[in-house]
Amino acid sequence: MQRNNQSLFPTSLLPSQFISNNNNQDDFECTFKIMLIGDSGVGKTCLLVRFKDDTFLSCNFIATVGIDFKNKIVTIDNKKCKLQIWDTAGQERFRSVTHAYYRDAQALLLLYDVTNQSSFDNVRAWLSEIRQYAEEDVVIMLLGNKVDKANRIITKEQGEKLAKQFEVSFMETSAKTGQNVELAFMAVARALISKQMNMTANQNGSKFNLTEYIETNSEQKTWCCNIGS
Ligand SMILES: Nc1nc2c(ncn2[C@@H]2O[C@H](COP(=O)(O)OP(=O)(O)O)[C@@H](O)[C@H]2O)c(=O)[nH]1
Ligand SMILES: [Mg+2]
Q1: Which of 75, 96, 146, 158 has a CA between 20 and 30 Å from the CA of residue 204?
Q2: In this structure, which residue's CA is closest to atom 26 in ligand 1?
Q3: C-alpha 173 – ligand 2 centre gap (Å)
Q4: For residue 197, how far is its CA from the centre of ligand 2 (angstroms)?
Q5: What residues make up the domain containing 98?
């Protein structure tokens, strides 16, 4: 049965209006909106909970409905930044809703599950949807999640190849063990800060090199292109 999206998501909760209600904006030197997308069950909610609270819930009981968000304050190079992280439901029936939110996102973390072939196959469809609905200069990072599991089907090389083809950054993560989770969010936040600084100050200074940053900091070597420019 078709759901009525309007009743689930009142206009008062549309993202840009929601952000503009923030009275404490001055407390932060930057506020970024990051969205988690990907098929249902790939671990988006668990990844967010791991980053926010550093815990792993079995999560079986949490079926994200539509869209939800959590704020996390991070300090990067003495800058206090608010990351507003939006967690979407990947189910087909909610896609028409999440489209509206793409426009406000400065970064997208696109997840697949390394033990689930179809979630990997669907990455192309997600990327074309991103190209259609998100801002052109949105920062995109592809994440192969659940690398802690023994029954992986998708190799790291396959993930790297796909990311390279679409010129997006790539990492492998585990919401369960926490591997690379903090790094993925922090790398994206750093790329956004660098982008913002380059735009506002028209600086000639050194650009943040995301590739190098991830290579240096990741718990396993990963390939990544420079999205910080
Ligand atoms: N082993 C393992 N399981 C995970 C990981 N991330 C999520 N899960 C499990 O995958 C299932 C779906 O996770 P969830 O975050 O709800 O996926 P979502 O639909 O993308 O939000 C849950 O049963 C989680 O416990 C991970 O990194 N490793
Ligand atoms: Mg979820």
Answers
A1: 75
A2: 146
A3: 16
A4: 33
A5: 15-182
Nearest to 181 by CA among 192, 171, 168, 194: 171
**218 inside domain:** no
Residue 147 lies in a domain: yes
CB 116 within 8 A of CB 42: yes
Q: How far apart are CA 28 and CA 64, in angstroms?
A: 28
**pLDDT tens digits for range 87-137:** 988 666 666 777 888 888 999 999 999 999 999 999 999 999 999 999 999
* 198 found inside a domain: no
Ligand number, closest to the Cα atom of 144: 1
Q: Which residues line ligand 1 (CB under 6 A)?
A: 40-46, 58-60, 62, 64, 145-146, 148-149, 174-176
**Paired strand residues for 110:** 37, 142
CATH of the domain at 157: 3.40.50.300
Domain membership flag for residue 114: yes
CB 213 within 8 A of CB 187: yes
Residue nearest to atom 8 of ligand 1 (CA): 43
List the single range of 45-54, 169-178, 193-202 with lowest mean pLDDT.
193-202
Range list of H helices, 55-203: 95-102, 117-121, 123-133, 156-166, 181-201
pTM of the model: 0.83
